[in-house]
Amino acid sequence: MSDEMVEAAWAALARQGARLKAARIDSLFAADARRFARFSREGAGLLLDISKNRIDEEALAALLALAKGAMLEEARGRMFSGERINVTEHRAVLHVALRAGNDAGLVVDGHDVLPDVRAVKARVEAFAEQVRSGAWRGFTGKPIRHVVNIGIGGSDLGPRMAAAALSPHLADDLALHYVANVDGADLAGVLDRVAAEETLFIVASKTFTTQETMANAASARAWLRDQGAEEADVAKHFVAVSTNAQAVAAFGISAENMFPFWDWVGGRFSLWSAIGLSLAIGLGSEGFEALLSGAREMDGHFLEAPLAENLPVLLALTEIWNRNIEGHRARAVVPYDERLALLPAYLQQLEMESNGKRLGLDGEEALHATAPVVWGGAGTNGQHAYFQHLHQGTDVVPVDFIAAIAPDHGLAGHHRLLMANLFAQGEALMRGRASPDGNPHRAFPGNRPSTAILMDRLTPERLGALLALYEHKVFCLGVLWGVPSFDQWGVELGKELAGSLLKGTGVPSGLLGWYNSRARQEDKL
Ligand code: G6Q
Questions:
Q1: Which comes out higher in pLDDT, residue 198 or 505?
Q2: Active-site annotation holder among 4, 364, 384, 503
């Protein structure tokens, strides 16, 4: 389809927006007893409910026409077949290969990548079992009790979030720690709590040049030596996950303690690769495989379900509506599950780093607004804090509510309370309320959109499906907005400036001069 036809689909969508401008979501519900059934879908063990957004059948049809017109299905096929769809970096985008079934094959540039994927996964899982069983010993002969993942961004957020989400499924006698920040307070806080002889460090870095990770890894190694380990003992306490074998060797980690991955795995999509090693240790190979199988189920759903039944497509189209037609600049992610408290931070990277772009694939200004600000936190806590803004603020912020039907704890009554709050918030945002006593400050405007994603339990499978749902949503939006979702040049400039300031070649701004003089005084104290 031509660009003109895609723009015609956008124009048709804008007309739907104008038609529904005065509509209220609660009135749409009142007018249609089947609204929930019409605007909710199930797939890969998840329920997606978009019925509390200000859309109707005609608007949804226009959204689906945009997806068709933008050749979303063809683009999806190109990603799954290993084409170099990351055009700005000339790479394939194949996180789906990391969770492909054992009978699958995927040839990229004449090479089937799946045997490599399987071989590394087998090594990851075998190593995880060695650590879990206590066969892997530290320098005094004791088994490992603490695993410290040193990595940042995509080499941190996924495993950190998933380890918290799946805490009931982790080994009891192993603690997982995550160190990302170059602020020494981060690493120091962990080192204070672990015994060197029982600690394994995983240096997780695709490039193995990231300043924060290299600084933390060097300090951790120096600390290990200070704690009595010999140079030869370092191999018992350090392993690496990287694509850069040379830099790993230069750091002193041997090839058998390095778990590779590939340039076609983007950092923020790398949880499924050896970057998930800490998680594989915590979960065991069975649990890690279950996570992958849940994602695989969502991959299959995304590939095969018709657009109108397709969860990632519908989630993306809901965002097109809220962002581009209704003009909302932010979206809140509020899991009603304490274990998913880090999900908003994970999605913030996934969505904002992927689609926070102002230029289209052709290098010209994007024609439509792209990724909204993504933020949030666990419910019910947020209700006692920022929900004020969601209910009565001047900006409308659509919300994603996420929850499991059944908990994994035995505390009676809590889950009913939690879920009652989730449902109440969706209703309150939608319906609003007139002031009960004439005081205008007590009125709620309502008509505020929300989306719900529910699952039976928060198992490794369901988490895998949930994360793959959002990954594919991000892909769909990249296609619809026409932006390069798989690069992240926007993080370069600050890094370069920090580098020159460290070398003393940066141009000091007023603030830096002030800081330097104060820091000199502090040094003298
Ligand atoms: C993710 C980004 C970024 C990256 C980190 C860490 O998609 O590229 O967050 O993951 O900068 O990079 P390394 O793994 O190379 O240390």
A1: 198
A2: 384
